[in-house]
Amino acid sequence: MSRIKSNYPILGIGVAILAITAAPALGQGMMQERMSQRFATMDENGDGVMSSAEHEMHTGDMFAAMDADDSNTLTKEEFMSLSMGPGPQGSGPMAAKRQNMMKAKKASKFSAMDVDKNGVVTKAEFDAFSTAKFNSADTNSDGSIDLSEFLNKHAKP
Ligand SMILES: [Ca+2]
Ligand SMILES: [Ca+2]
Ligand SMILES: [Ca+2]
Q: What is the fold, at CATH topology level, of the domain defined by 2-154?
C-alpha cells in the first residue's frame, strides 16, 4: 500500500507537466470540440452532413433571433447585440482585446452583408450572404457540408 501512496506525487507532477505542454493544443482542441457540437446541432437529421436545407433552416433561425423587432431587416445594433457580453473567455485586458477584435470582425461582416449599403441587412441580403458562405465552405461541391469542411472553415488554428 505504501508503494502506491508514494507514487501519487510523481503522478501528480507528470499530469501537471502534461497539462502545461498540452495547453496550446488544448485551446485548439476545445475550439474544435465547440465547433463539432455546433455542427451537430445544425445537422438536424443526424446524417453527419449539413445539407443546404439544414443550413437555411439554421440561418433562418439565426436571423429571426437577431431581428428583435420582427421587421425582417437587421439593424447594425440588432446584429451586434447577438452573443456579445463577457462570454466564456472571461474578463481582463486580453479578453477585452479579443472582444474588440470580435466586434470589429462583426462590424465588417455586417457591412459585407449590407450589399446596397443602406444601413440595414434585409433577409434577402442575409440569405445571399449565407448561401455564398455555404458554397465556399462546400469545398468538394457536393451540395452539403461535412464536419471536416465545417471545421476547415470555422476552426482554423
Ligand atoms: Ca443532415
Ligand atoms: Ca441593405
Ligand atoms: Ca461538401
A: Recoverin; domain 1 (1.10.238)
